[in-house]
Amino acid sequence: MTSPPHHADGADPVGFGSHDHAHCVTSALAEAEARCAAEGLRFTPVRRAALECLLKEHRALGAYEVLDRLREGGFGSQPPVAYRALEFLVAQGFAHRIERLNAFIACAHPGASHSPAFMICRACDAVAEAQATPARGALGEAARAVGFTIERAVVEAEGLCPDCAEKAAP
Predict the structure, then answer these.
(1) pTM exceeding 0.85
(2) Which CATH number fits domain 21-168: 3.30.450.200, 1.10.10.10, 3.40.190.10, 1.10.150.390?
(3) Cβ atoms of 95 and 84 closer than 8 Å
């Protein structure tokens, strides 16, 4: 697998490169548990299970996929079970909603205030997250030109991941 490019701001995209995935999942769950405990938030078993579902893959999962996995774990089969857990994860910054896919992905930088940029592979649905600085780029210039202040931006780009690009090359 091709290594992802390194960005000048030190934020490498997460999702396309090789890494110790078991450690990734374990440390993210531990971080979520610690932050919830520190902030007095309820990190219920269903919320933990939903986050674990999202962490296990670097692709976005629809709410019904998460619901199916929660059902397999004994958490019930009603859609509100998954939606409430996902809403909590997004509200707390542990997950993001990918509008393009109408799906959810675990945040690669939980707890950090950031503007995510998602690179979505159109062939395999893998998703990588990097940090963007839209207020500094062309979007920021366009906003400033009309007196607009960007407070939040999410960038979603569609293309081919390194593996699929390699397979598609002649």
Answers:
(1) no
(2) 1.10.10.10
(3) no
